[in-house]
């Protein structure tokens, strides 16, 4: 007799032999016992989950000579002929190769004839989603009201392609992917039948590669059995399926733990050289870290493990990583996996993901102290340092025998001015810049301002478009923003500030510090500085320093934008009407004419 593949020889012939799909079996068996079967069924689900096999078993149970029964006897002539595919009243129809309307019309014409030798004429239409639109339309009426002796069983892997009018005329059963345990148990039955010893870890590898499909699992098992000798070994299954052993994953995790980049990339290079697919590698790594999380959660979840075996060293490795670290690894690999699907350079993506994971590895359990310290806010960390210093000082005084003096409370620092959106301008640093500000420095910044903006990206220069330098010293300049949100975005973007100050330094030869402040805060700071330093009384005062005289010089006509102090001089004599007009229309649209 010609050799047959395992998935054909060991196709289930009764509901009892079916793996999984308990909800489908129970519903159909109850309907058979109560004689409440309907005229149309729709079996949908992934490939290899038992749709066609269930349809044949149900057809045998309907026409079995011992019916009504919840199981076919598989002994009567009807059951045997249906199993052989020779029964005239059970018609299997492949819609993938017979999708035209003519084939459906042939079924419609013959369906009204009574069955030849059984109670029901059963039509099993496989891959029904492949039918053409006209074929579906021709089938509609017959599917809704067939003769009493006709039963239609439609099977498909893509139910979303069926018209809603077809689905609504059927009882729908959704077949689910089979669990790893169901697949392993079925493979054990096959191996025991052929009397071949096996390693259970090898069966796990096959079950994982099958991805929930029994037909795929039996096909892989058939291939591994042909490759193996007297025993089915783990090494044979890894080689045939292209999977990776637990040892390799263990070595990769150890390299990640100690941040051994060279060893980690060498392992990856060896796997790629052995023909492993990087996309499959990323999936297996995700499964491996998922298994480590399960081992961390509970020792009783070993039955759910897919890649690792519950060994002592694996338990130790699982507890060497913090849960947040493993979650981070899985997130990195999942995002990389999505990017790899649209690229031909999958190896580079996987190498980059591993490097990210090495840099991310700051959550080892042995590093708990540093993790907690890193989680503290900067303010709280500063307070802890100050308290530690105080304790050390007091301890030193007590050891020296000196009387302990009552410590004075530290002088409260002046809080930064806070804009309405929550941004705090560095007012203290701005005050220091104003003390040393000169016209030459601010003019130097303004002279290269436009050129520096043109060298930046449009998205970055747009944030600085409504800003202007209003004061500058030899080491820093103050940048006033018209909009508070732009001020906060620029102040929080350290890379943008560094890039812009480098562009300014390239033009001026000086590396300046950039201080950002909203316009409202700037006006308050300017007014306070003028009041504190008495610059409004400059004409009356006779003790003006050389620096203030430098700042009080009238600005040149070709430079309408003045440094801080020039902008502050007219405050005392500014007309309220002029101020209000400038607020409404802007300075550029106001012209003051004195009578």
From TrEMBL:
This is DNA-directed DNA polymerase. Signal peptide: none annotated. Residues 402-426, 536-569 are annotated as: Disordered. SMART domains: AAA. Pfam families: DNA_pol3_delta2, DNA_pol3_gamma3, DNAX_ATPase_lid. Keywords: ATP-binding, DNA replication, DNA-directed DNA polymerase, Metal-binding, Nucleotide-binding, Nucleotidyltransferase, Transferase, Zinc. Its EC number is 2.7.7.7. The keyword Zinc applies. One of its GO terms (molecular function) is DNA-directed DNA polymerase activity. It catalyses: DNA(n) + a 2'-deoxyribonucleoside 5'-triphosphate = DNA(n+1) + diphosphate. Belongs to the DnaX/STICHEL family. Residues 536-546 have a biased composition (Polar residues). It comes from Lysinibacillus pakistanensis. Residues 37-179 form the AAA+ ATPase domain.
């Amino acid at each position: 007799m010609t050799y047959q593949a395992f998935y054909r020889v060991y196709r289930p012939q009764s509901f009892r032999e079916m793996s999984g799909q308990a909800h489908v079996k129970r519903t159909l068996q109850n309907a058979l016992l109560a004689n409440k079967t309907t005229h149309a069924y729709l079996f949908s689900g992934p490939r290899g989950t038992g749709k066609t096999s269930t349809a044949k078993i149900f057809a045998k149970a309907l026409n079995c000579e011992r019916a009504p029964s919840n199981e076919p006897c598989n002994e009567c002539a009807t059951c045997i002929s249906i199993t052989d595919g020779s029964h005239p009243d059970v018609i299997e129809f492949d819609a993938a190769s017979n999708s035209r309307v003519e084939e459906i019309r042939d079924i419609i014409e013959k369906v009204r004839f009574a069955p030849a030798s059984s109670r029901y004429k059963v039509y099993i239409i496989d891959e029904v989603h492949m039918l053409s639109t006209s074929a579906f339309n021709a089938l509609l009426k017959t599917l809704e009201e067939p003769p009493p002796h006709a039963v239609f069983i439609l099977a498909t892997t893509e139910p979303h392609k069926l018209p809603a009018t077809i689905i609504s005329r059927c009882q729908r059963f959704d077949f689910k992917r089979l669990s790893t345990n169901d697949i392993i148990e079925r493979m054990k039955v096959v191996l025991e039948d052929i009397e071949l010893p096996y390693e259970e870890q090898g069966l796990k590898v096959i079950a994982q590669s099958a991805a929930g499909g029994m037909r795929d699992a039996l096909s892989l098992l058939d291939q591994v059995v042909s490759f193996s000798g007297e025993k089915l070994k783990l090494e044979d299954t890894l080689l045939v399926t292209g999977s990776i052993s637990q040892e390799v994953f263990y070595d990769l995790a150890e390299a990640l733990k100690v941040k051994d980049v060279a060893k980690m990339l060498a392992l990856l290079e060896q796997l790629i050289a052995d023909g492993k697919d990087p996309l499959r590698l990323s999936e297996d790594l995700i499964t491996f870290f998922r298994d480590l999380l399960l081992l961390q959660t509970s020792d009783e979840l070993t039955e759910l493990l897919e890649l690792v075996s519950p060994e002592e060293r694996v338990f130790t490795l699982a507890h060497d990583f913090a849960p947040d670290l493993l979650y981070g690894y899985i997130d990195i690999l999942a995002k990389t996996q999505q990017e790899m699907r649209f690229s031909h350079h999958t190896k580079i993506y996987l190498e980059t993901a591993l490097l990210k994971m090495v840099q991310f590895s700051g959550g080892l359990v042995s590093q708990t102290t540093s993790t907690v310290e890193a989680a503290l806010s900067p303010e709280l960390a500063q307070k802890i340092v100050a308290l530690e210093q105080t304790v050390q000082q007091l301890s030193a005084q007590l050891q020296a025998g000196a009387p302990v003096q009552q410590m004075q409370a530290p002088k409260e620092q002046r809080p930064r001015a806070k804009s309405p959106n929550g941004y705090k301008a560095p007012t203290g640093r701005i005050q220091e810049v104003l003390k040393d500000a000169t016209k030459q420095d601010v003019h130097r910044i303004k002279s290269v301002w436009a050129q520096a903006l043109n060298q930046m990206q449009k998205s970055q220069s747009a944030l600085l478009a409504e800003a202007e330098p209003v004061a500058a010293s030899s080491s820093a300049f103050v940048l006033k923003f018209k909009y508070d949100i732009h001020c906060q975005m620029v102040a929080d973007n350290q890379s943008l500030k560094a890039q812009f100050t480098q562009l300014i330094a390239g033009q001026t030869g000086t590396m300046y510090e950039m201080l950002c402040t909203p316009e409202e805060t700037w006006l308050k700071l300017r007014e306070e500085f003028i009041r504190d330093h008495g610059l409004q009384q400059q004409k009356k005062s006779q003790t003006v320093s050389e620096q203030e005289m430098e700042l009080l010089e009238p600005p040149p006509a070709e430079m309408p934008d003045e440094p801080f102090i020039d902008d502050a001089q007219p405050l005392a004599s500014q007309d309220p009407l002029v101020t209000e007009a400038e607020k409404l229309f802007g300075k550029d649209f106001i012209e003051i004419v004195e009578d």
